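# step 3/5: fold
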Amino acid sequence: MLTNSEIAKNTATKPITEIANKINIAKSNLIPYGNDITKVHIDALKKKRFNLKPNKLILVSATTPTKAGEGKTTTSIGLAQGMQQIGESVCLALREPSLGPCMGIKGGATGGGYAQIVPTSRINLHFTGDFHAITSANNLISSMLDNHIYHRNKLNIDPRQIVWKRVMDMNDRSLRQIVLGLGGKFQGVPREGGFDITAASEIMAILCLANDKDDLRKRLDRTLLAYNHDGEPVYLHQLNFTGALMALLNDAIHPNLVQSLEGCPAFIHGGPFANIAHGCNSVVATKMAMHFADWAITEAGFGFDLGAEKFFDIKCQSANLDPAAVVLVTTIRALKLHGGNDANDLETEDPQAVERGLDNLNKHIENVQQFNKPMVVTLNRFAADTDAEITIVKQHVEQLNIKFAESRHFTEGGKGSIELAQAVLDIANNEQPFEALYKSEDSVLEKVTKVSRKMYGAHDVAFTKEAEKDLLQIKKLGLEKLPICIAKAPSSLSDDPKLHGRPRDFQVTVRGIQINSGAGFLVVLTGNIMRMPGLPKVPVATKIEVQEDGTITGVG
């Protein structure tokens, strides 16, 4: 089979203006970035919907993934193309790739095979500059904070109690903890600091959860940055430069429109990770996909326990969204891993390991059902999968009275996803609203406990002394009603990345809680999760090259 780059290069696509016209986006609302990419002005949402059925949102999530992921994005693209194949009006709403994983372990995030979003290399690398805008806005805050302290510090900010970190869109473990301001009197005030990856920046979360520009400004203004020497909070509006941040984010607020290999419209906007952030594309992009098509397909990062839980409990609650159904993606290789096989031995036929791994699938099925949503379990088929292995999964799922669909979008594109598309159409008629896992009135301890027990299967939750201090501070600031965003290992249902399958009788340890008052949630840090990843032993960056004709290979 051809490589992703070769497939994309050999597939003729339409000008992006034709894709926009296909879903009735007015030319006056387009902000073109060449022939293949355009931003769509946020005001396009004000246009009245014509000749469209009531729109429905479909969430794509997955079982606990292997290191390479199980293909949620690829499946989302395949599903959209499959719906298009059977004559449905459909649009995608997905996250933007981060350079960290692109250069690290996973590579690009634009799908693969015949289920890709194009232009792949531009989207995976710099795209329309949204990540750079978010990085710049985040770091302007850091610069303004340090500058304020240097110049007389009228707000009496305590340099030891600055909670705002710098960010960069790259994996770099050496920047997690650093010392700033060294070099003498004129170089700044020495203090400890550090970097997170841009995908974990609160500015990323704020942009992705903002409903419009006014909401964006309000969220920026209320962002907690530090504490003064009296222990009182210091918020961004007190430094009086919100206008500059709005200027930096002025273009980034508008969603990006591209297309799949089969010409399916795709809004790609925002890119928070789900293991260290809330894991969903922007609210504006999701609403735009729903506004211009009958069906909107979106995905939430990593397994259902991480991305999908936050999709429901944070994004849907904040933006008044409610998906009609869930597509739960699994793979034979993931089931083998959770069935006890070594991570380097997932392609050898092993029906017994697949059967053992079904316990992990069962837990994720239970998790979907806790949100009161119908589902399709879809198997993303890989070349090494055998019919015998697939039959085990199919029979198991159908015995649970749940729809099952095998999807071959990677090798066949939309035609390989028609079975999945039809299955989604068959179940997406549930008018019951989703049920949140917790209430805003619950204490933070209760919220963490409910998610840990219901989603992960933990028997208990323990808070370190540092985390208990954070709880007291949250109560003091009156922020207990905020939803929680748990930062947790993506490779396990537990907070221990080495526990595969369906762990039982384990305890989740909370070591700290960060206040993201601008985004509107509390980041609960568990286990040894890091908000600045490191590069693997052999980074993907070693395989990326630019060919003589300018084609970039190895990034998709």
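# step 4/5: annotate
The CA atoms of residues 196 and 531 lie 5 Å apart.
# step 5/5: archive (pending)
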